[in-house]
Design goal:
alpha/beta; Rossmann fold; six-stranded parallel sheet; 42% helix; binds 2-amino-3-ketobutyric acid
């Protein structure tokens, strides 16, 4: 039976709840379902978590017994599994990243299957694409040839999700997130993180040294759009979702030079310099944009934030912090 979003029986567990996506997704889920219906979990010590951010539990997603005991104790009906090591950090310790990303997903899928959970959300990424994908805009059904361990874990994860869906009837849903831009929590360990760091450095120092070349276009999205996309996908009727893997979702595509121009509208004397590092080769393997026609068709996906609106909203929230 599908739980309607307003039924009190919906209990959601979120892993990686203190991360860049988790911070905002937990808040959005609590608005819809109520605070107590959303159990936040992460590696941080529970003692440090303020009351208004509870229920919160310290959880290492590699510990399947702990995960299972939370699911049973709270009568969890849905899991949003966000904990992962991202692309740049993953290259520093590939086997560790593989183990975390894959084993945690398998733990979630197993527990969800065994306890007959209603739904699971697991994010994939544009990191599934590689050099054989059309550089300008990647189709939904592109050949996946990821170049990073993170990307390989996302490609394999898409296959595992499809396996559990097909073999066990588990309702697991997934999006290929582009680089995400937000003001609440820092991005960490990704290749697209520059698009968040640049705002903080611009406001703090008036300048930024970018680790990608000026003309490196990548798919990006404002967090409000990403959170809305996630909730819309999770609330879409199951029969409408025809995609076997994860859905491409597009919003923005810009280069560091273009983002710098948008920032200059707010800080006219902002300066940017470039000093490409290892992350450049990861960025070079990703497309500049994605074709999201299938998501638009299946569950009416529509982005709302363009570059100007995103930049303005970032400044509206961050300017008071640095005053
Ligand atoms: C990263 O840069 O690794 C992530 C992603 C695109 O999945 N932001």
């Amino acid at each position: 039976m599908e739980h309607h979003k307003n039924q009190p029986s919906t209990v959601i567990l979120v892993t990686g709840a203190r991360g860049q996506i988790g911070t905002e997704l937990v808040a959005a889920l609590r608005k819809v379902y109520g605070r107590k219906q959303v159990i936040a979990t992460d590696l941080h010590d529970a003692a440090a978590i303020p009351d208004q951010q509870r229920p919160y539990h310290q959880l290492n997603v590699l510990d399947k017994d702990d995960l299972e005991s939370l699911v049973v104790t709270y009568g969890v009906t849905q899991i949003y599994h966000l904990a992962a090591t991202l692309s740049a950090k993953g290259e520093e310790a590939p086997l560790k990243a593989w183990h975390l990303n894959m084993q945690s997903l398998l733990n979630i899928l197993e527990v969800a299957k065994d306890h007959k959970l209603d739904k699971v959300f697991w994010p994939s990424s544009i990191a599934v694409f590689g050099p054989s994908t059309a550089r300008k805009i990647s189709p939904q059904d592109a050949l996946l040839d990821p170049q990073t361990v993170y990307g390989i874990s996302k490609e394999a994860g898409e296959q595992w999700c499809a396996y559990y869906r097909e073999h066990y009837g588990l309702d697991v849903r997934s999006l290929r997130y582009p680089g995400l831009i937000s003001y609440s929590a820092p991005a960490g360990g990704g290749t697209t993180d520059y698009a968040v760091a640049i705002f903080h450095e611009a406001l703090q120092n008036g300048s930024y040294e970018c680790y990608l070349n000026p003309d490196t276009a990548l798919p990006m999205m404002y967090m409000d759009d990403a959170v809305r996309a996630t909730l819309e996908l999770m609330n879409a009727p199951k029969e409408a979702l025809k995609e076997r893997g994860a859905y491409n979702i597009g919003a923005l595509s810009f280069t560091p030079a273009e983002l710098a121009i948008a920032l200059k509208m707010h800080i006219p004397d902002f300066t940017i310099s470039y000093n490409a590092d290892k992350r450049q080769s990861i960025a070079n393997s990703w497309p500049a944009g994605v074709d999201d026609a299938v998501a638009r068709h299946d569950w009416n996906w529509q982005p709302e934030y363009d570059l100007t609106a995103m930049t303005k909203d970032m400044f509206d929230h961050l300017e008071p912090v640095y005053k």
